Amino acid sequence: MAPVAAAPIATLASGHLQAYGDQKLNAYVVSVAILAASGGLLFGYDLGITGGVESNSQFLEEFFPDVYAAEQSSDLNGPYCTFNSATLQFFTSVLFLAGLITSPFASYVSDKRGRLVSMFIAAVFFLIGAGLNAGAQDLAMLYIGRCCLGAGIGFANASVPVYLSEAAPFRYRGALNQLFQLATTIGIFVAQLVNYGVRNWAAGWRLSLGLAAVPALVLLVGSLVLPESPNSLYQRGHVERAEQVLKRLRKSDDVSAELDDIREATMLCAKTSTLDSWRQLGHRKNLPQLTISILIPLFQQFTGINAIMFYVPVLFKSLGSGAETALLNTVIIGCVNVVSTLVAIFSVDRLGRRFWFLEGGVQMCTSMIVVSAVLGAGFSSGATVLPESMSIGVLVVICVFVAAFAWSWGPLGWLVPSEIHALSTRTAGMSVAVSTNFLFSFVIGQTFISMLCAMEWGVFLFFAGFVVIMSVFVYFFVVETRHVPVERVPLLFARHHLWKKLMGAEATEEIENDFAAATHASKDRALEDGDTLEQRSSSTWQVVYPE
Q1: CA-to-CA distance for 16 and 18, rounded, in angstroms?
Q2: Are the C-beta atoms of residues 290 and 282 closer than 8 Å to each other?
Q3: pLDDT at residue 531 in the model
Q4: Predicted local confidence at residue 313, as pLDDT
């Protein structure tokens, strides 16, 4: 599938590409990115552990006896409704409710104290939550622990993708940012292995929940030893440290062009308070970024992925698979998830964001339609157990769906919001993206089992319809950001044939003037520092569009 031409794709004039230098990957920046991306382990582990714990009979008997009784009963209300319980669904969804509430605070901390402080707080919250869940004696303690885990995820998800985008060389920003999604998928896979390994232990669910402390400790160490992002340092007035860190990350003493972009971006937001950054998101010049930061995370959840990840063990048990088989199926799906994410890492900066958004949409839509057809056929005669051949077919199609998500909407749902905002609104914009993600994760987590019970196989057609809608949105409104320095991305929207009409001439002119003014100020400062005008001009970025 070739990239479409509906939205003009921005390129950079070759003469200006030289300003940033070659910017090859080096061992230091890769190690920094890997350690920072460990924040994704928190998110992934909790996503992966939930379904397995909820399918554990001992766990259900202790905390959700009504669900346990329904599971043990031979008189079930159809294969789709065994686990239909609001309290059980709240165990899943309260995590995201807590993340939703804490995300704005995470944005403030990230702005004022730096990305690493936000990561540190995330790790502490997660450690507390893991301890409470592992030792839970009643439902209240269980829910409080989940709230702490959600707060930790809120702080991690609001800071880690931004940190990765700011630390990465622009040519490899997509690949390094997607290490966050890779860590998420690894966390899911490890959690599924843990669930499978403790399946026969009476209190194995306590170990499953308690081991969430391990990824938290990894992130805690990372927050203490990693360098702060140069963009955050410069924004908070630590100019010399920002330059030193940038030189270490790039393994080069010549970082003047990139530092100029950071300086210009900082000048644009120098008079912007945290409250002002939120207000600016509502300005017409930020309409594209705000819209994308809301719709991309919303659409990401309405792919149905978290319904799959949360409830795969529950789903397969409902369809007649044994407990062990259901958990084994999750391990297979988790393995596919990890491998497919690697595909995205190695291709997103070559093929671009739009290609994978659209390819993934086609593949996911097709998969959901096939799953609904198989389930509809399998239970058409009133059967309560899906035939083995059909169960295998459902597993295969779900694997195809998960693979598509893993190399498209999974990583890109975090990458794109982290790289489209100006420095002045970046953390606020990312907070909006995280909050939206958590809000609709909460909605899906709280309603999917009830939707499955009410809509039966039709629930998968529901998600397929959303995949069509979001693919149309990407086709017309999402710009291509590969190989564009993160501080220059706002110019793409000002020159996009649809967004510039929606923003209006005044807003687009303001964007152009802001960058022009910052560029001139940077040139003046360079002259004061002894550089020649020609030297400075050669390091100025321009965004152009092919005819």
Answers
A1: 5
A2: yes
A3: 46
A4: 66
The rounded Cα 492 to chain-centroid distance in angstroms is 22
Look up residue 74 and give its two tokens. Answer: 């031979």
The C-alpha atoms of residue 447 and residue 451 are separated, in whole angstroms, by 6
164 HSE (CA, 13 A, CB side): 36
Q: What is 126-181 written as a DSSP string?
A: HHHHHHHHHT--SHHHHHHHHHHHHHHHHHHHHHHHHHHHHHS-GGGHHHHHTHHH
> Residue written as tokens 């004696």?
137
- Judged by DSSP in three states, 381 sits in coil
What is the spatial distance between Cα 331 and Cα 333, in angstroms, rounded to a whole number?
A: 5
End-to-end CA distance of the chain: give it in Å, rounded.
22
What is residue 540's predicted lDDT score, i.e. its pLDDT?
A: 39
Euclidean distance between CA atoms 259 and 127, whole angstroms: 37
At a CB cut-off of 8 Å and minimum separation 6, what does 74 contact? none
Residue 320 has φ and ψ, to the nearest 5°, of 110, -5
In the chain, what are the domains? 23-494 (1.20.1250.20)
Maximum mean pLDDT: which of 142-151, 348-357, 419-428, 500-509: 142-151
Which residues are bridge partners to 543 per DSSP? Answer: 12
From 443, 146, 153, 193, select the one nearest 313 (Cα to Cα). 193
Question: What's the pLDDT at 292?
Answer: 95
Phi-psi region of 165 (alpha: psi -120 to 50; beta: other; left: phi over 0): alpha
How many whole angstroms separate alpha carbon 85 and alpha carbon 76?
A: 14
Residue 425 phi/psi, 5-degree rounding, is -120, 10
Give yes or no for a contact between 356 and 6, defined as CB atoms under 8 angstroms apart.
Answer: no
Q: Is the pLDDT of residue 139 over 60?
A: yes
Task: Check whether 74 has a pLDDT greater than 60.
Answer: no
- Asked if 432 contacts 296 with a C-beta cutoff of 8 angstroms, the reply is no
Helix and strand numbers (H, E) in the chain are 28, 2
Helices (DSSP H) in 173-322: which residue ranges? 173-177, 179-197, 204-210, 213-225, 230-235, 239-250, 256-268, 274-281, 287-301, 305-318
pLDDT of residue 228: 94
CA 313 → CA 55, 217, 331, distances in Å? 6, 28, 10
**Digit-coded pLDDT (tens) for 372-399:** 888 777 666 665 566 777 778 888 999 9
Q: Closest Cα partner for 121 from 147, 155, 90?
A: 155
CA distance 295 to 471: 11
Output the six-digit token pair for 228: 């702060």
CA torsion 299→473→425→158, rounded to 10°?
20
